Amino acid sequence: MKSFLTLTFLIVSIFLLTQTKGLAQQLKTEGVASYYADKFVGRTTANGEKYKHGKLTAAHKTLPFGIKVKVTNLSNKKSVVVVINDRGPFVKGRIIDLSKSAAKKLDFINQGITKVRIKVLEY
Fold first, then answer.
1. Which residues are within 8 A (CB) of 27 and not within 5 positions of it... i.e. 6 or more apart?
2. What is the CATH number of domain 29-122?
3. What is the reported pTM?
């Protein structure tokens, strides 16, 4: 029984790893990022959490909830790691919508949007 559980765990782990790598290969890795407006504070995100400016979270159209993504501002090379917990952005040309605290770390609050590179780190 123990070997069956170990084998099952190994198979599931390999499956998740290959799925995450497949996502990374299909993912558009450069584009425009924006951040959540103040009116979204306290609203429910797509995964059921309440949105808070202070958490390092983000919305992406296709990445699974809970996945960690490194976001790098291409104009100043600053980076932040966020967790995907929502869907969006729904504005043409944008690839990720960040929490306000993530946008502050990337130093683009005054601009409102910036060009970024995203990299999937772990699921």
1. 62, 63, 118, 120
2. 2.40.40.10
3. 0.77
